[in-house]
Predict the structure.
Amino acid sequence: MSAVKQSAKSKNLANRSTLSVVLPVLLGVIIAAFALEFSYGDKNTKFEEMALGEGTSSLFCEYDGYPIHCEGIEDFAPCLQGWHIRGKNPVVLWLGNSQVHAVNQLKQVQENAPPILFRRLYKQDIDLLTFSQPNVSLQEHYVLFEYLRLRLPVKTLILPLVFDDLRETGMRSDIALALGDARVVNSLETTEIGRQILQQAAQNKKDSSTDSGDDDLKGVRNTIQEHSESALNKWLSDYSNLWKIRPEARGNLLGSLYLLRNSIFGITAQSKRKMIKLRYHANINALTAILDSATQSGIGVLVYIVPIRNDIEIPYVKKEYEIFKQKSESLAKEKNVVFCNLESLVPATLWGAKESTRFGKHELEADFMHFQAPGHMLLAKNLTRILETRFLETQP
């Protein structure tokens, strides 16, 4: 009898021990679920724009209710419709990065450069359509240009050259949509860099197809576990809001890790960014392909070195930056296109500041890429002057 009682007592102790472990874990899971839902449930962060900071605003303007400034192919249709309604005029196409659409310390009724330039050209029966994306590479510009020149009567291409963006590679999904057009593919196949872009896109598509659209399954590809996890992922995506917000949570985590890295290594906006040679050469090859494609299509080209603040030391290795500028100018001369160096156009007083790129730092850091609205006015006026002098028949 005593043995039975002892056994029951041991069982009760084991149950209590199990509960003491399970309950805190269960409680932790519930709290974590509420925390995730509260933090990310209503968010739809545009992670590409996070680097702009709170002091910088993105402007994508309209004219008569139709956009004249787009990001890529996904929002191209309304831009095209507006061009149709305005009379299908010849087009000046402006491709750029965030400098084109972002304004520091924006005030009410202020605007960026594209609408200013648009109004000036529209008086001469010329349409300006602008496309810009943050941290865009020249390889992406190449693909987008091939897509747009097949759909618009492009008279002139404006192409800013950003040394920092020559560190970029890959193809964002919005621009990769162009590769579904056989004519774009045929054009890309005529150049070495185009074939490299197509090859990488095909590999990405193969990987995506194999992974059933979920990067979390890469480690178990071609196993029984892949099929079971894929089915579980689909079920969770259909019935769990927490599962749906994984990309938002993951993006914020990566952003925090980026800040942590900068904090540990003391990286700021003024830290030197060295050239990544393979990417640099791929982007220069893409620039060459753009210039060749444009001139062969009878499209005039204006390439310009973008403005950069010059009151403090720039975050580039000086020798590498000088080589980039010399290469850009010599390539423009070789291809017989117009080249302008606008790096000193915007005075120091018109540049802005952005929030710190490190944890726990509240002081603002210098912004080398984005300037205030009066700087955009200067850029628009200078581009207008160059276009009217070198490309367009100006009206009195």
Q: What stands out?
A: Residues 41 and 245 are 6 Å apart (CA to CA). Residues 2-40 form the longest helix (39 residues). The longest strand covers residues 154-161. Residues 1-40 form one domain.
